Amino acid sequence: MVPPARFNWRYWGRGYATEAMRALFEYGFETSGLHRIADTCDARHAASVRVMEKLGMRREAHYRETIWDGAHWHDEYGYAILAREWRAFKTT
Asked: Is 1 within a domain?
């Protein structure tokens, strides 16, 4: 399992996460020949949801109470995109 990537809060809202994910998709699909890329996010984090949906990913799952913060359980969303979907999306 890959540990979650996090941007310092001072840089939130500047498009860096979108830019980084776009570069990963390009590398994954166009250079490495991946068929599918999937990711998850805390369901409470609207900005993460927005980034994934902005890049054409679709929500495939709603995992109930999978994140433990030391005091409470929280839900998580699962997103994915296929190579053919990415190629079609980036031409629009």
From this structure: no
